[in-house]
Every structure is written in C-alpha cells, then in structure tokens.
Fold:
Amino acid sequence: MDIETTTIPKMTARGVSVFYGDKKAIDDVSIDVSRENVTAFIGPSGCGKSTFLRTLNRMNDTIASARVEGRIELDGEDIYGKAMDVVQLRARVGMVFQKPNPFPKSIYENVAYGPRIHGLASSRSEMDVIVERSLKRAGLWDEVKERLQESGTALSGGQQQRLCIARAIAVDPEVILMDEPCSALDPIATAKIEELIHELRGRYAIVIVTHNMQQAARVSQRTAFFHLGVLVEYGETTEIFTNPRQTRTKDYITGRYG
Amino acid sequence: MSGLAPSAPIDPTPTDWKQSAMQRRIRRRYAAERRFRLVGLGAVLLSGGFLAFLLITMMINGLSGFSQTEVRLDIGPSQAAAIAAGNHEAALGEGVYSEGAWVRLRDGGVRQGSVWLPASTAIDSAAKGEGEAVAEVAYQRLSNEDRVRTRINWGFLTGADATDPTLVGIWGAFKGSLLTMMVTILIAFPVGVLSAVYLEEYAPRNRWTDMIEVSINNLAAVPSIIFGLLGLAIFLNVMHLPRSAPIVGGLTLALMTMPVIVIAGRNAIKSVPPSIRDAALGIGASRIQVVFHHVLPLALPGILTGTIIGMARALGETAPLLMIGMRAFIAAPPGGFSEPATVLPVQIFLWSDEVSRGFVEKTSAAIIVLLAFLLAMNGLAIYLRNRFEKRW
Structure:
C-alpha cells in the first residue's frame, strides 16, 4: 500500500477500521489526503468508500452503532481526540451529499446559514459579501443573483447541488468531502460540477467519492480503490487507470465487476 | 431464464384482449369502482348528516336561550312605597317576574314611571310557545296589556351560574374554560414538544426508551377520569392547591394532553427528512442548532395538528374536572387562576341535570357557546399552522 505524497498531507488516516455494531465495514485503512489535489475514492457499491469518507468529518457519529478505530489527523491533530470539537471539525471539513439537500429556505439563507452560526460575519454587508463570493466560487452567482430570496428548493437539481457546494464553501473550510455529488444529476449538470471541482482545486483539499470511473479519471489527481472495506490500491490517478498494480483494481476498472 | 433467450419460440396463442371473459372482467372492475365510490360518498353524507342534525337541533333549542322575555313593571303609589321601604320583593307583587328580578329593581334604582324586568321561567317559556296552560293565560293577559317584550339576553353572555334559569350566564364557565386552557397549553405544549425532541433526537435506543415509548402510548389511551383521580391525589391532597381552581384543572388536563402532543410531535419530527439534518451537521451546526433551526420549524405544522387534537379533547373534557371539584356551583366568574371556577362542558352537564324547564334552552345555548369556542380555537391553530407552512 503506497501512501507517499510529495508535500505534507492535509489529512492522514492510520489503521482506520469502522464497525456498524459487530459488522466491520472498513478494515485497517491508511491513507493520506493531499492538500492541493483532488482525491477520488472509487469501488463497487457497498465497498465502504462512503463510510470511510464520513469518518473524515465524523458524520458517522450520528449513527449510534458506528464505532471507529485507528487514528485520523487533520493537520496533525487527532480528529477523534478530546481536544477536537466536532462542530468546528465539520466546519473545517465540509461535506456535499449525494442528493442535493438545500434547506427549505431562500437561496441567500442557505449560503448565509453556516457563516451565521459560526459568527463569520459581523454585519449584514459582510454577510452579503460572503454570500456573493461563495455563490461566485460555486459558479451559481450569475444564475441566481436576481432571485436570492427565492427558495433554494425551487432550483434545478444541478443548481441545487452547486448551492450545496456554495453553502459548504461559505464557512471557509479546509477540506471538502463530496459523496457521489453527481449521481442524481444529468450529464450537463454533472459537467458543470466537474468543472467546478477543477476550479476549486488548490484552494481546498477535495475528496470525492464516485461510482463513475470516467469521472474519477477526469477530476482527480489521486485515486483510491476500495473493495469489501479494504483499501486495495492508492496512487496517481493516471497510474491507477493505465497501469494498476493489483489485479482486483484492473478487473474493476476494466469492467469485470462492479 | 431460457424464456428470454432470443431463440425461444414465440407464444403460439397471443392473448386475445377482446374475448368475452376479458370484457366481463373489465365490466366487473368498473362496477367495483362505482360501488366503492358510492359507499364512500354514502359514508361522507352520513357523517355530514349527523353533524347537520346536531347543529340544527342545537340551534333550534339553543337560540331561544340567548333571548329573554321581559315584563314591564308600572310603578304606582303602592310599589313606590314598597321600594322606598326597601321591600323590593313586595313591590313586584304578582309572580310574573323572575326570582332575582327584585335585585335588578334594587340595583336599577328606578323609583317611578316603569321598568322592564326579566320574566319568570313560566312566562318566559309561555312566550317561547312551550309554557304550561296557567302560564299561557298569564302571558296572554300581559300581552293584552302590552307589558311583555323579548330582548337579547346579554346577561347570559356576561353573567355566571344562578339558581334561576332566567338569570344564568355562561361567561363564568367560559372564562373558567379560557383560564384552564391557558394553563393546559402553557404546560402541555412545551413539555410535550421537548419530550418529543429529546426522545427523537437525543435519547439512545435502548430498553429504557422503549419502555418510555410504550408508557406514553398507553398514557394517551388512559380514560380521562383516571387523570382526574391523579389530579385529586397529587395537586389537591399532596400539593394542597386550591380546590375547583383553573390552575388545578389546567394541570390535570395538561397531564392528559401531553401524551397526545408527544406522539404527534415524535411523528412530525420523524418525518423531517434526514438529509436536512445531514446538511446542517455537515456545515458544523450543533445538535441543538439542527433541532431548533431546522427540524422543529419543519415539524411545527404536524406538532400543531397534534396540539389542536389534544386541546380540543381537553376543552370538551368533563370527567377529570368533576374529580377535582370544578362541578361546584360558582355564581361569579373566576377572577384568576386560583379562584373557584367551572368550565363549559361541566356547566352543560350541571344545567342538563336541572329540573327546571328553563334550563333546557340554556343547556343548548351553552353547547352553542362551547362549539363556537372550539371552532375559534381550531381556527386559530389552523391559521398558525398555515402561516408556518408558508414560511418554508
């Protein structure tokens, strides 16, 4: 298993196992998430890639039966340690979900909610700046600037997902986790999200879980292949897709199973 | 799986959709749908009919309860002398005035000319066409002398209970109901909603919470009189709160309403999509922020529906209030939460038990007031619910 990176990694996982009750969903995964690259997690359904993603910002805490072993660090800080505040962690490690899930509030409120609860804006005009900047970075500003007070749920699926990305960006996170962000979208909306991921790269460390191998090849620089809760192979995306070292990886990316 | 292979032979006899057996089946299906629609319509009409019957009977019997027959008293020398002597009852002389009419005469301060005073029950009934023979004769005589008139009975809307049906009022019981309901909602709503939130969002799933859930479901089904006994034992015997008071009635009814609110609240909270919770948690909202910023506002319409049902049941409740002494004869509207009071349904129960003929229409009139109160309360709740739904 190769976990080498050229620079200091943003997040590191060492010997991470996740249990749902007695069932082991993730078995001894060690991985580094790079600071300036997009990392893709691929693998067949039920391989544990989403489960592992959710351990990175402790979203699994909400599942009573879930238990995590091993060590995960964000900039060298143990995120499961006592000193780590889970609320702050989730602000620093934002998340975009599979199904677009805007709040049933106005577009403005959707973006402003995060900064407001974290006290990032001290005035109305500061909040306006944050909302505009976030929507611009998410590539949504031109489409919604005339109707910021309309409900976020009235947007199309692709726009909703970009609104969710804007919402995550608004709290100025360091890492953005994306859990199959395009699986509910049509090809054009998908292309827009992929373009957006390209633009966001470098500013945020991005981890994306995807079912779609072409997507992983298009958007990511590093790819991790999961199978049955085990990290099978992790390396440069081009390497994984052109010259996989493991037969299981090769079988998967050539469509033998999945 | 071989049937799907391209080499499989084509079914030799394709289904004939026009054959008579098929046509019969279609006809039977249409008939079944028609039958079902008719039965459904019949059920709706039947329940609507019952409701209309109830309302119309109440209106016919009760509307006369809002009016009152008055008889004019011409103050001659003898009456004036009696009034001056302070003997107002003697001034009334003939028995066509109600038992309490002398009080009205005394408080009115009229010493000469003429004054309109409430008629006795017998005359009042005769005026409304349902009196006894003797009263009919007396009424005819007064009518010929042009000494009777019918007026809206404002006293009924502003007064409290009395022994004479012509003098009773509903305001005492109405105010009692109002105060009792205020106590009930102030206790039951926050406690019920917070319990629901805790059980749905915070409590771990284990044997204890399962037991609590079963207990709450059972509590919602407990007969109300048992809550009355509980109120009697705890609020009166242990805590020594005042007997017959709205505060005790409200607390007792709150105990009864709470489980309904908890159950409705839990269902409403459960139906908020988990993706909303994920979204809020994902940008670093704390548990309490998730609940109060997102879950509760979305669940509020459902919670309010449950609250309406619970409050409507509490408003119509009689049995538990009998146990804590709210069936006492209270001749003055309650001045506060700890003063003796009665409530509308209990007042209806008490009046329906009276022997005097005049109480029949008062009972129906009180029912109309209770229904109006119920309607107003539900209307307010529905208005609030729609307002909260529109915000999202």
